[in-house]
Specification:
The complex is a heterodimer of chains A (296) and B (286). In chain A, 28% of the residues lie in helices and 21% in strands. Chain A is an alpha/beta fold and 296 residues long. In chain A, strands 6, 7, 8, 9, 10 and 11 form a 6-stranded mixed sheet that branches. In chain A, helix 4 packs parallel to helix 5. Chain B is α/β, with parallel strands linked by helices and 286 residues long. Chain B contains 9 helices and 8 strands. In chain B, the strands form 2 sheets. A 5-stranded mixed sheet of chain B has the order 5-4-6-8-7, covered by helices on one side. A 3-stranded antiparallel sheet of chain B has the order 1-3-2, with no helix packed on it. In chain B, helix 2 packs across helix 8 and helix 4 packs across helix 7 (212-228). The chains are: A alpha/beta (296), B alpha/beta (286). Chains A and B meet through helix 3, helix 5 and helix 6 of A and strand 2 and strand 8 of B.
């Protein structure tokens, strides 16, 4: 069931342009002359298959004025600066394998995170990480994070090494590690493990927990481009709270103004296409999502 | 139109600023974004507009080193370059990104109470006697492990890095018939790419070592390496802490202390790499 929904998402998360000054008829048709004037496209650029001949008129159907489908919800494109999207591309598209057989894709929590802290986790770690998660949840739309008391209610477990191993697939040699499960673009289960023996300093351990927890909010790829302190850096010595840049990168990751769950290639293609319409006051670029991705 | 022209000129000016910075080399290796509110006026390379702020990229430059006299001792300086930087950087004089690694905070050390108290006392004595007056390096002992940044923990488990029976082990045994310098003691530590040393866990199998003076030698040796992140010299004199074949001396070799002083002479916000360090500490212009 889940895999069918994901396929649907990938194919239906489309982008399109709406033109404010064109006046399509009830079928969404406009004259080819008006269309070319608006888009600065030449006739050669428009495939014959897109043209509709009605009597002496050559028309073209404009999408966006007529609903693409009742199952789709359209949202204006979330335009950001090139520097911002370059940074986002660096951190959001982690290549899951070195052989490059699976394309890098952005991944996110659709159904919210329900965190369970194992019994051995120190109160200071529970409190610190919970506060951090709550702040993030309050500032990022469509990312719900809660803490649960029962393991069976959770989809995310925080625990210490050398105690009960909730996720044996994690590398046994790592003192700090996480493991995520996903179906397509949706992350649906996560584990975060730290060795209290190795990270014996309370303040440092909490910092590391926060840094690694943050990475699991989207299967992020830390970068050395940013200074230590950023949650997107590879450093352990991150700041107490998120910087505005960190926060906005995360908000953008969860924004419906871009196609979600797409591969890096698709994201960049769409970015390029959207860029053409950024400064055209009479046109508007939309992304259209299947309704299912809004449902919990 | 005028507004666009202004932006264009600003971008061009910022780009020129960036290129001159890149050639200058004395710039830290990663991008530093500052809120426009706190940005230094008239400095910056690129603008990063956010939804709720505007950031200016102001990569940090290393400040001019004011007091360079310490670098005038050519023998110590050359030895320092050899130990503080990677082989590749030294051989090819390349712009290796490996920075100087330092403790940027007070070094709180915890000694496991399962270690013999006389051993702990000897260790503390050595540290106080030899490392007490190093500028920018503050070492304290603590009874609270959860507040320490270096913890020496006794264990009955094997801590071997090089396992007995392997070729490497046999090879080392030829050089060190009395045992490897780091037999039965092992540290786990990490550093960030800005050169900040993070906490270190040192496991020591005191039961296997059995002799207090040998354990002390290993602990002192290990501690010096944790403070400096130096590469060990294979050909150093036995009195040298920065040598593989270190043999315990109550008073540390003056060269090792001089190296430690040089290492902490400046507490770098971001540790410079080999080329930057050489440029920053050059005494030719004095």
């Amino acid at each position: 069931m889940m895999s069918k929904r994901i396929l649907l998402l990938i194919f239906t998360c489309i982008s399109f342009v709406g033109f404010a000054q064109l006046r399509p008829d009830s079928e969404g048709l406009v004259s080819i002359q008006d269309f070319m004037e608006e888009t600065k496209m030449t006739k050669k650029m428009i495939p014959d298959s897109a043209l509709i001949i009605r009597g002496n008129d050559t028309l073209i159907k404009i999408s966006g004025f007529t609903p693409l489908s009742e199952d789709l919800i359209s949202v204006p494109y979330d335009f950001r600066s090139r520097q911002f999207t370059d940074l986002y591309t660096t951190v959001a598209f982690k290549d899951p394998n070195v052989k490059d057989t699976v394309p890098a894709r952005m991944r996110y929590w659709k159904d919210g995170m329900r965190i369970y802290f194992a019994d051995e986790v120190e109160r200071s770690d529970v409190k610190g990480l919970t506060n951090f998660a709550q702040v993030i949840s309050s500032k990022v739309d469509s990312l719900d994070i809660s803490v649960v008391n029962k393991l069976e209610d959770a989809n995310y477990v925080v625990y210490y090494k050398d105690h009960y191993d909730f996720e044996p697939r994690m590398n046994t040699n790592n003192f700090l590690d996480y493991y995520l499960y996903w179906k397509g673009a949706y992350i649906n289960k996560g584990f975060l493990r730290v060795s209290k023996e190795r990270y014996f300093n309370d303040a440092e351990r909490l910092k590391l927990l926060k840094a690694y927890f943050f990475r699991t909010l989207g299967y992020f790829e830390p970068t050395r481009e940013l200074g230590c302190g950023s949650y997107f850096s590879t450093c352990s010595d991150v700041s107490e709270s998120l910087s505005q840049l960190d926060l906005e990168l995360l908000q953008y990751h969860y924004s419906y103004g871009v196609c979600k769950g797409v591969t890096q290639k698709t994201y960049l293609e769409q970015l390029e296409r959207a860029e053409e319409y950024r400064n055209k006051p009479r046109s508007k670029f939309f992304v259209s999502h299947h309704k299912s991705i809004f449902q919990k | 139109m005028i507004g666009k022209l202004r932006v264009g000129l600003l971008v061009t000016a910022l780009s020129l600023g960036w290129f001159s910075a890149a050639q200058d080399l004395n710039v830290e290796l990663f991008k530093n974004f500052v809120s426009i509110e706190h940005a230094q006026k008239g400095v910056g390379y690129e603008i990063l507009p956010l939804e709720n702020d505007t950031l200016i990229r102001q990569d940090r430059f290393y400040a001019k080193v004011q007091s360079k006299s310490i670098y005038k001792n050519d023998t110590v300086y050359r030895e320092y370059l050899k130990l503080a930087f990677s082989d590749a950087a030294l051989r090819k004089n390349i712009n290796s990104s490996v920075p100087i690694v330092q403790w940027k905070q007070r070094v709180n050390v915890y000694l496991d109470d399962k270690l013999p108290s006389t051993l702990s006392r000897s260790f503390k004595r050595f540290v106080k006697k030899n490392f007490d007056n190093i500028a920018n390096l503050e070492i304290q002992f603590t009874n609270h492990k959860d507040r320490a940044v270096i913890a020496f923990m006794n264990t009955s488990d094997s801590v071997y890095e090089i396992k007995p029976g392997t070729k490497s082990y046999e090879r080392y045994l030829k050089d060190y018939p009395d045992g490897l310098p780091f037999d039965h003691i092992k540290s786990n530590q990490s550093s960030d790419y800005n050169g900040t040393r993070n906490s270190a866990l040192v496991k020591i199998n005191y039961g296997a070592i059995a002799k207090e003076e040998v354990a002390l030698e290993k602990m002192v040796h290990m501690f010096y390496l944790l403070l400096t992140a130096f590469r060990l010299a294979a050909d150093g004199a036995p009195s040298r802490l920065a040598a593989y074949g270190y043999s315990y001396q109550e008073i540390a070799d003056p060269m090792d202390i001089a190296l430690l002083q040089m290492h902490y002479h400046i507490l770098w916000q971001t540790g410079p790499n080999y080329r930057e360090f050489k440029k920053l500490t050059s005494t030719n212009d004095e």
